[in-house]
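Quick one: structure tokens for this chain, please?
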Amino acid sequence: MPSWSSLQPFIPIGVALGGVYALSGVGMVVLYRATGVLNLAFGAVGAMGALIAWTLINSDGVPPGLAYIIAVMFGGVVTLAYGMVFGPALAARDPLVKAVATLGLALVLLGAMSWIWSNGDITRSITFPTDTETAFNVGQVGVEWTQVIGLAFGVVMTVGTTVFLRVTKIGTAMRALADDREITATLGVPVRRVEAAAWLGSGLISGIAGLLLADLVTLDASTLTFLVIFTVSAALIARLRSIPLTFVAAIVIGLVDNLITPTSITNFKDMTPFVLAVAALLFVARGRQYSFARGGIR
């Protein structure tokens, strides 16, 4: 086992990535509860937005702040357009069909990125001004403000979304859709409008997450696209229901994944989200069986 001093440098980045996974997971859970769609294109949308921002900054001379806003808006527009075009057709289909449909979008975007940004000799990166600023120290390790921002976004999104779903009309409508779509429509709730809000919000979140991951991890289309696995794992641990549990699961996944890096099993670190998700789901299933044996599933 590595020493505590060798593990310390991986704690801040693990928590920061966990915050970004939580940010993404909350957007994924809200969209799933409102529309029944598990958006597997989340990472690809964010990756393409980050690459667009990089191009605007380095090739077109656009100010970084404006480029970042355009990247976030790109995520919102693409996701909203997909939801409005394909959402109605997918509404009555099985969850597996809906998930595969978004996987198709992810592959289309990944192919487009491979074609547009095909020059592999160029090193691309998103670098925020906060990367070189130390916020505080954890032991002997300095924590950068960008890492703090990554965690802060996850916390703010978790708390803000929870409050939004409870106190706003659109939030209440989203919760009603999650309980029973047909009854909610019968009561006069504008289902299409609520779904559009869910798609747009999810897209904006994917744009933000893509920029943060491009800075914290790397600006690579394939890597950012498949980081959605970490987000999906956190959402599955929360059974695509609990927003606070999604946050906790994302933090644990990000932290464990990075703490494995200096160990002898680092070659297996990509298995982290799968192992944690399977373990959590088996624990939940065991708890249900136990409750059933005592007189009913709880």
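The beta strands are 134-138, 141-144.
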